[in-house]
């Protein structure tokens, strides 16, 4: 009995020591990038099998009020919004309200070449339409309240970059069009549909369609870094990025999102699988993108990834399906990107698993 107790104690001690060592390595990795405890910072999470195994905050959430970030801080997630837009499209397909192979002319008859561009092309960034973030005239509307139709009208007559399906080129305009199609097909506002059908169902009580006017408790404030020091982020009206980049969330809510996907809480397995399928161009070349996710790998282990960048904020998440590991990072200064950090954290966790 004594030997059994001793053996259990040794195993438990070894597991705890390994976990502590991994935590120390991750702390050191993050602090090598987020070096200023009194500057804007970041929050990070690692979850395994749906439960957090690492969750920490570094730096300040509001420089003017001298308040620190915490693991419940609410961040703008930028282009990680595209995951929610893609799943919303698939939810409408499952309800019979649209099909991903429908041409966009079915919903927006006046869209140039709209009979050749499909919802699938928009989802996979293969439509060829001009990305509005690259247009010089963007500054003219950046702070205006725009309807989805006005946003689509802003870029729809720009010359196409290539024929639909000819190549993959990351494109925010496509996801704005998707948001407009969501509203036309459902009869609901995009933000209302996302809240009712995703946030509420997944229990994401601290996730929002972004606003600079609403009182949002525990909000992280965004910053830029200039030669003179930090400044408050540039103001943008969130109706401009719309369904391509206007959501806000927390570490724990994004874990609820990932768990909801894993548990098929929002979609049937067959429909959801479309989001995580690698698709092909017209010439048969496979692209590393599904619907709302980059489909890549860490040393040969498949991953589902996406980041985000919007004035004052950057975000990144990597999910490793084979191990049910989710790694996530948010930054409240666009001077600090969590992208490589999150990938390196995922790599560390995979290497740690191999040593056990």
From TrEMBL:
- One short Pfam name that applies is Beta-lactamase
Keyword line:
Signal
Organism's domain of life? Bacteria
The secretion signal range is: 1-19
Domain called Beta-lactamase-related: residue spans: 28-334
Q: Does the keyword Signal apply?
A: yes
What's the protein here called? CubicO group peptidase, beta-lactamase class C family
Native organism: Epilithonimonas hungarica
